[in-house]
Amino acid sequence: MLQNDIVRNLVDRDLLIKQFSIPPEGQEPRQVPATVVDRQLATTLREQFSDDPAKFAAYLNSRGMTTDQYRKEVEEDMTYGYMIQQQRKLDKDTRKKTTK
Predict the structure, then answer these.
(1) How far apart are CA 5 and CA 45, in angstroms?
(2) How sure is the predictor about 27, in pLDDT bands with cuts at 50, 70 and 90?
């Protein structure tokens, strides 16, 4: 049961991330601006690794990741957070309309 929930959550996460990049008709595809990702990476380096690139590199090495892979992970985390926020707003608006 727990394993099914985990798989379902991972699939839902992946679908939301993919949905973000599908543009509404007549609009450009969306993406997280590189500057926003850069700021998050700088914050992570400062707060979690004491601004020490060697510690950060050791962390990435322990996870078997490159900097580019980590950057993509951060971007996807930000995208997922945004999409969840949008979904909650939609759910909240839908509940308001059905209670009127």
Answers:
(1) 32
(2) confident
Residue 97 to residue 6: CA distance in whole angstroms: 32
Higher pLDDT, 39 or 100: 39
In a domain, 47, yes or no: yes
Asked if residues 22 and 31 have their Cβ atoms less than 8 Å apart, the reply is: no
Give pLDDT tens digits for 45-99.
999 999 999 999 999 999 999 999 999 999 999 999 999 998 888 888 777 777 6
Domain extent, residue 54, equals 33-80
Alpha-carbon distance values, 85 to 23, 26, 52, 100 (Å): 18, 23, 32, 23
Structurally, how many domains does the chain consist of? 1
Q: How far is CA 23 from CA 28, 36, 78, in A?
A: 6, 20, 17
Residue 26 covered by a domain: no
Structure tokens at 85: 């926020």
Residue 46 lies in a domain: yes
On whether residue 67 sits in a domain, the answer given is yes
